[in-house]
């Protein structure tokens, strides 16, 4: 292309989608420009996509502003189109030109202009003083040339600075961070780490051709995919169902060794063969280079983004930042920004972003006469967890969130209501009703803070009713948006974590404690993940820490004659370890994770200091201890007489936890000493659900006299909700997990449920009415048509291909509660919460 033109109106650094779009529009407007690219080809990020990759054009409701075309399609086709159109627009491209530095040549900028930047060069650290100057800018290239530009657009992305794995063996040669051509790998065990779009696409590409004989697994720390596109997630789960690859949810890398990888999973450790690891765990901005340009970041976090104005201008006047470096990774967004930034540079400051109509609708019902930008800044600056985002990130964030206004006294949510969204208070305040018997007893939460974090973290129902104490504006953040926020803004994750820990302490001990009282404990808190089966506290040990369960559950056991005797079950929100801390004794029992859990560890000496300062808290803790001491004393007294009964008791408890009771909120158990096999429970279930039974009494596992049939556990964190494209799976007012009539029969919920309690069944036709039966003899006659008749009819009519997901909904909306329990003539069928199941097993009779 053209040689160095001397001084240009705008220099664009980086030819990804954002940079290409900016350069194309500069050419269209006739502005002197230069597109600087360090490689010998355009759009290196997409060029490095795996061969044949299908590139998506999302969000679908966002219009594209660009002089270049872009639509969903194969990587090669998109790159070919751009090459042709860049040439047609006569874009001035300088290839093989790596930028070493960007320096202002104008007058020094007054104020906070001196920045000391520490950089590592050749293994040594040097300190360099950087002074920001005004435009024009001298762009120094690695070949010795210099480009002078009145304005600079940085569109360099973050792909050159990937996040690295941090575990034993992460430096082994078979760990890589890029996949160029999936066809290069044949007959390998390959593990993909990371379930963003890049990780999902790599996994699918490697598993696409069965002739390659690759065994592909992809690891997801949780059960959700907050940073991936819905279409990618659906395609991934379809491949999983088809057996092309394995999606391992609730799993992460513990260690790597040649030929193997060890994972921590919800059920414990798992070692699997592994010839290659491809880690797609995100990337961070090239901070040192950007800061040397005189650009400030929003925070000190490694993954923080530059501070930008609404027109993409950084803290260095005349240097603009767009694309992934600005926190907007989607291609369509990037191309729109490229177009918009050149419009701004050309003087069109009245141009509104392409997503303006979508976001403006979010603020339509709020009081006050503010523009969209003013509302975004209002929320960003007023809600503490949003402070770490720049204006561009706020726009993307609001696409998945809602701004709401509540009048004084209005209920925002009620105690025991389902819900996992998080709320940030931008103005006003809310009152939390802490005593269900007396709504007048409230705790205030002020502007800037958050509430609803318990549902977000633990998955449990709302712990209290929350009302607007005055006219209040909040931003409601969906669970997926909150998870994405925490992954992209570390400061937000820390703030949510701190607030949730503080509130757990205040709610757990009550007694008039204040935030100042628990501040030392909160400062010293350490959040720890505990895989299933991990021992947290060991009987006889002399450690002196106290723990709160944030997520998951624990079991408490005592050693009797060399065998563990089950003492109790501790759900999320419980605390343990206080006995040894208060009385200085050794641990009296072992506490271990029933399922993959998360605990908060506090130093015992700080807890004791709190008890010394607050006698009322000590009395509360002593009262809790008394119940545990009674159990321990009872066990000690009956050592000689426990024998096989104690052993059976522990085995029964472990069996129930292994079969999902540990993460249940409501589970169906059948006492087989009482069950007569009448199947009334199944019939009642079918009668209550249009002939579609949600229960299979005979299926499921049994231990001793206890049977766990295939009926939904209504888990704290429902696995079935992890990927439901139409969002048909919801929680009802009593905590029941149900599937509504928007189900499309995709089967994702069935694949994600580890307990086999969801099945895909043909949608039966409506039962013919009485008149139709009388006049035409159609249908089974008076009474409810049996499920078998309706299913057979559906198959005869060719309707069996239309599927729907079927599972227990706890007979939601039916008077009297679950029909299966009401119909049992002997009382064999019972539904219980996990903390109560031992009292109804018949094995609890150790006294």
Automatic annotation (TrEMBL):
PROSITE patterns: 4FE4S_FER_1, 4FE4S_FER_2, CNMP_BINDING_2, CNMP_BINDING_3. Residues 385-479, 509-628 form the Cyclic nucleotide-binding domain. GO terms for molecular function: 4 iron, 4 sulfur cluster binding; metal ion binding; oxidoreductase activity. Residues 666-698, 703-734, 735-763, 802-835 form the 4Fe-4S ferredoxin-type domain. Gene3D superfamilies: 3.30.70.20, FAD/NAD(P)-binding domain, Jelly Rolls, NAD(P)-binding Rossmann-like Domain. InterPro entries: 4Fe4S_Fe-S-bd (IPR017896), 4Fe4S_Fe_S_CS (IPR017900), cNMP-bd_CS (IPR018488), cNMP-bd_dom (IPR000595), cNMP-bd_dom_sf (IPR018490), FAD/NAD-bd_sf (IPR036188), FAD/NAD-binding_dom (IPR023753), RmlC-like_jellyroll (IPR014710). Keywords: 4Fe-4S, Electron transport, Iron, Iron-sulfur, Metal-binding, Transport. This is Cyclic nucleotide-binding domain-containing protein. It comes from Alteraurantiacibacter buctensis. The lineage of its organism: Bacteria, Pseudomonadati, Pseudomonadota, Alphaproteobacteria, Sphingomonadales.
